[in-house]
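--- STAGE predict ---
source: upstream dedup step, 1 unique chain passed
mode: sequence only
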Amino acid sequence: MKKVTIFLLGIIILIISLVSFLPNYLSNSFNDESVEIVVSKGDTLATVAEDLFEQGVIKSRLWFRYKGKDIARNIKPGTYTIEPNLDIEEIYKLIQLGEQQEQIKLTFPEGFILYQFAERIEESGLGTVDSFIAATNNYFKKNYDFDTTNLYFNMEGYLFPDTYYFNKSQSLDEIVVTLAKTMEKVFTDEYMERARELNLTMHDVLTIASLIEREAYNDTERAKISGVIYNRLRVGMPLQIDATVIYGIGEGKEHMTRVLYEDLEVDNPFNTYKNIGLPPGPIASPGRNSIYAALYPEEHDYFYYVLGDDGHVFSKTFEEHKMNIKKYRK
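--- STAGE serialize ---
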């Protein structure tokens, strides 16, 4: 009986491991070199999946079809080059473009500000900085209704940082829709429910997530930094985050490399040294990990942190914090 129980436990552990491992594994591509596929008029997602499988790009036709069911009707004829290291989400984006225009691959890193999105759009030849910002304002008016009085850019933090494929036949309005809808897709109903549990709006969560994005040294400390933010908000301490000062002084366009004591005295809504609570809005575009950390902060008693040799060093009291500053800020 005991052997049977151990055997069954082993089977359960194996099943759990497979359930955790397989989705990520099957969502990757496996081609070491560029692969060209041709999507003809009338081809279906199943046709594309078969071609990708035959050429060694994917490991499962069924998984590719299941994950791509929402875009199945949006596939467009064309000749597509599948570069190595793409995941299937990027392949889905690619096969919806068609080949009427040259495909333009754009990557917006996590932590980019909206103005940097606009600059990258202009560099790619898809439009000017000003026209891109105008397109974000158009999207905002149609889809959102929150106070923008103290914001430099209405859609700051609402454009998801990721790799995208565009072409010159697309309007800037269409490009903004793609960037914004991707963020809305990432911010699931589960996340909205969690935000309500915390008595926060999506705007609040994206603001906190943007602070984490700009502050975190690596993924392992995002939840801990989130915990510090929540601890300070709970007791009414100013957040005192340098990145908000930098964003405010640069008016959402420029980034300083160094913050001086006199900068901390600048009267600005984003100066979290002078103002209690969250800044008026996000200071950058947060990625998935920062959004998750904003919704699920680590519970601890830390109120301070300073950058050490390999990440931030956290402390509970101001006395400890001063000692860490003396140790690491030489």
